[in-house]
Amino acid sequence: MTQPKASAHPMYTEAAFSRQDLRKSLLQKRRNIAMNVRQQWDRQLGEKLLQYCRQQQITSLAVYWPIRGEPDLQATYAALSDAGVQLALPLVLVRQQPLQFLSWQPGDTMLADEYGIPVPAQRTQWIQPAALLIPCVGFNAGRYRLGYGGGYYDRTLEKTPRPLTIGIAYQCTEADFAADTHDIPMDIIITEA
């Protein structure tokens, strides 16, 4: 679980794709995953995430609201909350700046942000989580993630103290690409494999 394993799926290489093309290709690959397969993989991802959080004794974790075919771990979020882990969701307050995190638990009132993503309605309980669960469009063997290209997580991880980073991805989105100078590797990438 600490290092991605070699994939049985053919990996995309940067030589054949620009980052933008690679991102589009991986997003399409993720969209093409059959719903029953996706649900099975999400359960496996959730079990591995729970196990990792127990092992690492994580007390606060920023999670994400699933969009664009990202793994849906909402059932796991409820289990983490029930186990006493303080959860948070990210919010973009200012473009091109680090993310901020609002305290959240399943069942809280939500509103859509400017991107249409549900975020907590309350704007008073901000936290600095000890760990971040970060969805990956793709990832490489060096634990670098390919995101949507906005750079919000990269800017967030430049701040100190740096939280523990947990990348979450489907194994089929492993790709061969070089990290950019501003990229920061994840501490761990968890896949269903």
Structural summary, described in words:
- This protein is of the alpha/beta class.
- It contains 4 helices and 12 strands, in the order βααβαβββββββαβββ.
- The chain has helices at residues 19-31, 35-56, 74-82, 152-158, and strands at 12-13, 60-62, 86-91, 100-104, 110-112, 118-120, 131-135, 138-139, 145-146, 164-168, 175-176, 188-190.
- Helix 2 runs parallel beside helix 3 (74-82).
Please write out the topology.
Blueprint lengths: L11 E2 L5 H13 L3 H22 L3 E3 L11 H9 L3 E6 L8 E5 L5 E3 L5 E3 L10 E5 L2 E2 L5 E2 L5 H7 L5 E5 L6 E2 L11 E3 L3
Parallel strand pairs: 1-11, 2-3, 2-7, 7-10, 10-12
Antiparallel strand pairs: 3-4, 5-6, 8-9
Task: List descriptors.
21% strand, two-stranded parallel sheet, 193 residues, globular, alpha/beta
Global morphology: globular
Please give the alpha-carbon distance between the first and last residues. 9 Å
Evaluate the radius of gyration: 16 Å
Report the structural category: alpha/beta
Q: Note poorly predicted spans.
A: 1-16
Mean pLDDT: 87
Number of helices: 4
The portion of residues forming beta strands comes to 15-25%
Strand order of the largest sheet: 4-3-2-7-10-12
Strand elements, count? 12
Largest sheet: 6 strands, mixed
Tell me the helix content. Answer: 25-40%
- SSE arrangement, N to C: EHHEHEEEEEEEHEEE
